[in-house]
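Late entry, evening session. Most of the bench is empty. Finally got around to the prediction I had been postponing all week. Sequence below, unchanged from the version circulated by S.P.
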Amino acid sequence: MISKNLYQVLPSYISTIRAEDIIKVKVLIDPGNQAAEVVLRNIRTLEFVEVVPSDVYQDVDILITSLDVLPLDIEKKKYPENLKVISWDISSTRPDYIWLLIQLNQIYVKKLKEKIENNKKKKAL
């Protein structure tokens, strides 16, 4: 009986994504361009991604930007040092979008692994 109850409860617990684990993504692509909407629609399907507004600079994990909307040097200083910048070609095709989703997943997994390692180090002290 207990194993049956655990089997029903554990999958939903395991698949829960904590707020501190979510990666924050900022998209800087010309708003009038259809590529911006396609990128946003694709990355919003990921439960571990939060799209932040264009005026947010702190706690941004990933910046997706088209080549024609690169951040200025002054703006780069506002972002965290570990910011990952992904340059995006507005004429991208389906394989490019799949590659983007894979990149976001890898960054998410890396963030989780770093968190686990940091927790292990804290416990060791």
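Two things to note before I forget:
Strands lie at 23-28, 49-51, 62-66, 84-88.
The chain is about 45% helix and 15% strand.
Will write this up properly tomorrow.
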